[in-house]
Amino acid sequence: MTERKAIVLLSGGLDSATALAIAQHDGFRAHALSFRYGQRHHIEVDAARHIAQRAGVEGHVEAEIDMQMLGGSALTAAIEVPKGREAADMAEGIPVTYVPARNTVFLSFAVAWAEVLEADDIFIGVNALDYSGYPDCRPEYIAAFEAMANLATKRGVEGQQLRVHTPLISLTKGEIIEWGVALGVDYGMTRSCYDPSAAGEACGECDSCRLRLKGFAENGRSDPAPYQHLAAA
């Protein structure tokens, strides 16, 4: 067990909520970092706030940046979110829901806050196995970013090595949910949908929803999050 501080990137989704629970279970004093980055909806940020409060994190920062001015993604621009895609389709190419360089931007903020707090650990809930082909969710990307961070920071140069933890990177969505349930994660509080209703109900058909529902089905569970169409959930 450890009493070290850790920055946990907390989007409000299933994966980041699980990563937070893992960090705390491992004894880290968690500081949550969420972003309003110009995404078309803020349901996930509201969810992150509630999750952070329930978890009793040491601190929670909601950073505001404007990636909408750059566009290039269905999450930040007037581009239609893909619906009803099969797993084979999700595995081909990089989808339009990829936000250019988003994890690089988010991790850079996390590194900056870690320096201020004198923390040497960052947790991010990226997943390379059961996900939609994002290039900034791959193990080689995380390794490269970690190496860069240790070259580019005062603490790194002075010998305090920063580590980027990715506990979910090689797990299926079903395995992630199984681990989270064992740690007491309330998945009813999480929001993962790319195209939710104004009331925060998930669409049930975007890539994120379909992967999430698949994970719950693999565990023989129903997703406790609200959906627009019960038949889809």
What would the keywords be for this entry?
single chain, alpha/beta, Rossmann fold, 5-stranded parallel β-sheet, 8 helices
What does this 3D model show about the protein?
By secondary structure, this protein is an alpha/beta fold. The chain has one domain: HUPs (Rossmann fold). The protein has eight helices and five strands. It has a five-stranded parallel beta sheet, sandwiched between helices. Helix 2 links the parallel strand 2 and strand 3. Helix 7 packs across helix 8. The N and C termini lie far apart (38 Å). The model has no long low-confidence stretch (mean pLDDT 93).
User: Quick one: CATH superfamily?
Assistant: HUPs
**Total strand segments:** 5
| Strand proportion | 5-15%
State the separation between the terminal residues, measured CA to CA. Answer: 38 Å
Structural class: alpha/beta
* Strand numbers in spatial order across the main sheet: 3-2-1-4-5
| Average of pLDDT | 93
Largest sheet: 5 strands, parallel
C-alpha-based Rg, rounded? 17 Å
Oligomer category: single chain
CATH architectural label:
3-Layer(aba) Sandwich
User: What number of structural domains do the residues give?
Assistant: 1
- How many helix segments? 8
Which outline best applies?
globular
Low-pLDDT residue intervals, each spanning 5 or more residues: none
What's the SSE pattern?
A: EHEHEHHEHHEHH
